[in-house]
Amino acid sequence: MKYLVTGAAGFIGMHTSKRLLDMGYEVVGLDNLNDYYDPALKEYRLEQLLPYPNFRFVKQDLADRKSIAELFKKERFQRVIHLAAQAGVRYSLEAPFDYVDSNLVGMMTILEGCRHNEVEHLVYASSSSVYGMNAKIPFSETDMVDNPVSLYAATKKANELMAHSYSHLYKISTTGLRFFTVYGPAGRPDMAPWLFTEAIIQGRPIKVFNHGKMQRDFTYIDDIVEGIIRIQNVIPEQTAPYSLYNIGNNQPVELKSFIEAIEKACDKEAEKIYMGMQPGDVPATYADTSRLEQSANYKPTTSIEVGLKSFADWYRQYNSI
Length: 321
Hints:
NAD; NAD-dependent epimerase; NAD(P)-bd_dom_sf; Epimerase_deHydtase
């Protein structure tokens, strides 16, 4: 089995690629190594993959239609796990066209590659952000998601619609995964676990938005990868072979409790600056994972205390602290 994993130098992409490689599969990892955050972290992640003889890295931009088409034609992938995207809710306020190029054009080149090269199953990253300001919780895959509150969320909803149209028109099996606030070792430096851990260790104050009353369904990276690995073997076969799954911890944690868990992991109390809500943020995320449990016999289980301890230990090691 040969896989294409896009965003292979990204957080989820690296961990997913490593799991597939450990299982003995051939993986072609694609990434453009952009500088949205420090490329040194992406190079570090790549270093975890390059020693594997069954891994090859391709530095390429998804928006390059010709190059992506040639890659698909040459490699003849059986399955594609599409995790590359311009990430970040807040950054979409500053650089909207980055999201169009990466998340919309990039999804299109992947769909066209799958269409013309008989890919067995396309699994792609969506996001819990598609639920927007939905008041009903927990969020279910059957809920209406027509009110995104950020451009990032709008592009992820568009990805789901694009996938459905290709599943309907060309009978391509596609599965979208709505990830809920993923964290863990080698995670992104623009997300709360990294930002808070770094500030606490360095003795700097942390900004606590919505006065600590935000709730997030924090999901540990190993749980996310386990969900991806299981779901890529659950291939939709209906008339339009299309599926969507939430992957979340099914246990939302208030920001205040989250900070307390980081303080415990760092063995140090944080200095806090309480602030209002940021544009594009939502007050709560909470995953209904019953569809994932039914189809893949799986439910994430890692507690926030265990996950943040693991991240804090990795952070100290990575930064030689």
